[in-house]
Amino acid sequence: MDVKIAKTAGFCWGVRRTVDKVMEVADQHRAPVVTLGPIIHNPQAVARFSEKGVGTVNGIGEVADGTTVVVRTHGAVREELERAEARGLEVVDGTCPYVKYPQAMAQRLSREGYHIVIVGDANHAEIKGVISYSEQPCTVVKPGGPVPEIKAKKVAVIAQTTCIGAEFERVVGVLALRHKEVRAVNTICNDTEERQADARALASEVDAVVVVGGKNSANTRHLAEICRAIQPRTWHVETEAELEAAWFDGCRVVGLSAGASTPDWVVEGVAAWLRALR
Questions:
Q1: Residue range 120-124: average pLDDT?
Q2: Is residue 57 predicted with pLDDT exceeding 90?
């Protein structure tokens, strides 16, 4: 089977930076090391960190004294970081710089009197962190969902870094017709936009698409949605163990894309499985 791999498949710059930082901390520290939440949304990568002795906690209340805490790629809730500082814990900030941008915008625009609207998943760690930096209540609009009525004259719209651009535009358009002043700040990561564009192009050129990445990864799910809209024979898997030969009956070329939190070795495992098909 011929396999065509998207140019931007696998770790993005921000994730690779955080993963390298965790490994460096694990190698240099004798004290216990934990990450505040899964460091990235990929179970296979998290398992490898565990083998290196790096644990995962859900909150600072679970951290023992003397432990080094690494902040995940998606950032952390501001109050949790303040608790860590108050306890004197060593904190290594692995927040992706692109995630820090919506955090900073939420804080600045809320101080300027704007009601903050965030296009994204309210349950996602990144969004929880961004909300914590706003100095007034925020409204989160789920991609594809309705835009609620907001009682405010000034509205500022930002987005989850992995948001699909068309959804950000849709929400901005709806709000622009309702409010006197709407400020739109595109906080979608450049890598996300490039990766989504590559996925669209790939899906139009192949007989089927496999998107590789954690099922809990928002950016991977978005890639699968984008590809499936163009090429219905699209499957989202975490590893080659989920693949079935029957999916590719009659295919000559299969496209392979992967989320920003998918390790290279997982992508290669899927590619090797597909190439072995006859």
A1: 96
A2: yes
Q: Point out which residues pair with 257 in neighbouring strands.
A: 211
Strand order in the sheet with 253-258: 2-5, 253-258, 208-212, 234-237
- For the stretch 93-124, what's the b/e string if a residue is b when 16 or more beta carbons lie within 10 angstroms of its beta carbon? ebbbebbbbbbebbbebbeeebbbbbbbbeeb
Q: Is 53 left (phi over 0), alpha (psi -120 to 50) or beta?
A: left
Cα 45 → chain centroid:
14
Torsion 232-237-242-248 (CA) sign = positive
Alpha helices per DSSP H over 52-91: 78-86
Whole-prediction pTM: 0.85
In the block, which residue shows the tokens 């295919």?
Answer: 251
Q: What is the CA radius of gyration of the chain?
A: 20
Q: How confident is the model at residue 31 (pLDDT cuts 50, 70, 90)?
A: confident
| Alpha-carbon gap, residue 136 to 97, rounded angstroms | 23
Burial of 21 per CB tally in 10 Å (0-12, 13-18, 19+): middle
What are the catalytic residues? Answer: 126
